[in-house]
Amino acid sequence: MPLINARLTLAIVALSASGVLQAADYPQKNVNYVVPFASGGAVDVTGRLIADNAPEAFDGHKFVVKNMPGGGAVIGQTYVSSAPADGYTLLAMTSSIINNSLTKPVSYSVDSFTPLALYNLDPEVIVTAADSELSDLKHFLDAAADGGVSVATPGNGTSHHIAALALAQQEGLEFRFVHNASAAMQLQQLMGGHVQVSFMSLGEAVGPAQDGNITILAVMDGQRSDLAPDVPTYQEATGDDFQWGTFRGIAAPAGLPDDVEAELESRLQQVLTSPTFVERMNDAGYKVDYRDGEAFSRYLDTTAQKMQKVLPMLDTQS
Amino acid sequence: MDYAALLQAGLHAISLWPLLSLLAGVTLGLIVGSIPGLNDTITLAVLVPVTFAMPSDIAFPLLVGVYCSACFGGAFPAILLKIPGTASSVLTAIDGYAMTQRGEAGRALGIATYSSAFAGVISALILLFFAPLLARYALQFGPAEYFSLSVLGLSTVIGMGAGNAMKSALSCLLGLLVAMIGMSPESGFPRFTFGNFWLFEGLPLTPILIGLFGLSVVIEMLIAKPGDEVASASRQSPIRFTDMLLPWGLIRRLLPTWLSATTLGNLVGILPGAGMLVAIYMAYERVRRRFGERCGQGLPEGIAAPEAANNSVVSSSMVPLLSLGIPGNSTSALFLGALLIQGLRPGPGLFSNSPDVAYLIVICFVIANLLMFPVGLLLARIVPNLIRAVPQPLLTAAIAGLCFTGAFAIGNSVFGILVALAFGVIGFGFNRMQVPLSPFILALVLAPVIERAFFQSMSLSQGSPSYFFTQPLSATMLLFTLGFLLWPLGKRYVLQRRTARG
Lengths: 318, 502
Prior knowledge:
The structure holds 2 protein chains of 2 kinds.
Chain A: H1 2-22, E1 31-35, H2 42-57, E2 63-67, H3 74-81, E3 89-94, H4 96-103, E4 113-129, H5 137-145, E5 149-153, H6 159-171, E6 175-179, H7 183-191, E7 197-201, H8 202-210, E8 214-219, H9 234-238, E9 245-253, H10 258-273, H11 275-283, E10 291-292, H12 293-310
Chain B: H1 3-13, H2 16-34, H3 40-50, H4 56-73, H5 75-81, H6 92-101, H7 105-139, H8 143-154, H9 165-179, E1 182-183, E2 190-191, H10 205-223, H11 241-244, H12 248-269, H13 276-291, H14 300-316, H15 318-324, H16 330-341, H17 350-353, H18 355-389, H19 392-411, H20 414-432, H21 438-461, H22 467-470, H23 472-501
Antiparallel strand pairs in B: 1-2
């Protein structure tokens, strides 16, 4: 008899508990967090920081970071675009989603995803070696107008390459491009004096600039950054406006049920704005800049428009 | 140099918890290194987030331990089963397995252990005392120098075919062809991809290696008749400690090889992106040049050179990271992440701003390489005897299982398994026709570096090939390449003259 009683109580508790969960039956299990790059990069490191902080906001369920590198992030992005839209597969979404869908024969577009949250914006900067004769933006622009400046990029078709092309288009400049396979090689060539100028993210440039190994000429943002307060914006230095940057955010496959989307958005906000997460991101050298799904969508649209303008210059079929 | 801080960090490193953590790291590194498909990069990627919560004097010993010993762990399956556990031991398998077949597995493992520990300690000391100096030298390497270095590296394939240069050349050309798959680094134009996005970035290297070396052996085992077991060589008498301790005479004989391989490993290792493989191939080539035909048939130097070179590269890849903040390879990029998370930024300021952690890391490299010695000998005592105890069918299945897991884990995709399977068959064919695999691997790895450096140089010199010869370093390396290429012809000419006269 006591046994039956206990069973009955258990059943009733279980029933009522599931009743509570019914209002929002998400999350029920661990979430796959797909990083479309190899381990070790910025997207991977920040993704693992998010995963580390996620269980608190996701009722103890974990984020399982899955690295799916290859094809310039195409493989991971394709995987998520065709994954079930149930909220258990998320994508670490970066600017590459826009250039990939515009320049490569892929099966998805930006609309194949539901943007959920943006957590980091990294403005583009123009840098030179510390002892370079191109000591400020004016010198650089003059030299580049004559077509004699060599520019290192971390790879053909990367956001940094496109930034340089966009600037060249707007200002009528001509660059000699030196494409690399990584940001590390790009930095090595700049510091060794083999190339004159690099286009990179502010986050990557701040450290070597503090060491006095490189000089940041300008930051391509609406305002100066706290990370490098002495560096002028492009507009301050030239009078023309030119803004560019990479972003890091989180998205799910398109077609998410409304309640799951709302649940995910609020829980992700909780993770991405929690003091521990923000502090760890700061320690790792990334500034958290949270935007919700709607703001992220708008940001995606403007970036896509900017890239579309440069597209004809990115001659991948030659 | 701040000797007080150095001494303090040294004492700290040998206190209980840091030392235990280092020991755990070394053991873990040996284990993951000896499993084909698992390597230091994957392990560190998993560990780095775990270290967020640890104090830095526990976190870094653990990471350093794994990084140092993983490439040594790769030598175990290379010697015992002819399956390199990591890419850094592909050459160790040649002479190592030949020794195992002669029943000298214990001796071969001993040579690997001594060579790794010796080179590792020397290179860690170089890292400690000369890092800033070497980092400046690394910056001298521009596109032209990378091009010439890679061409020089590629020229080492000439003698690899055990006397059959045509087979070496064939293997090398096939490697270059496979390397062409994927987007052009210069224009982004997709080559041989047939619109398939899995091929955009080329075929992934690790599944190829797993297939060529791991699955090809599995196929070999499957078709072998019962009785003439392929892995029977490692099934001879159990290995004893005394087999692994090298006599003084052999140590004296190997010392010149260790020194030259360590030097090469350090010179190539400090160049970001130049990599492990160039160093081990160049070190092995030196041995081959000295010993000729005997190399490849179980020559102790054939194990000593690549094992010494790969452990040197591990330490020296930290040089550009610690003194300039530029990670030398994907594994040291993970160290960069770990340092940043602990609130430390690598660069010229690291040793003056936080000498305690900076010196601790470097000293951990020294101690980890010392610890590798006893842990390695202990593992060498256990693992081969374990392999002997497992029946052949189970061993084959276990190796196949590990290979498939590793090939899948790289990109979390079945594509990796397909690549590994395809290259398993190719590797089997190579072995049957006695075409050497090593030129294929080297060409596959170096082709993208050569191509990229070529286009970079052309962009900088505005299309003038004389650029490669006007840079002194680059010109010297190209001259050496020419010398290497003409060497066999010259030797034959001299021999012919001599026989004609005699």
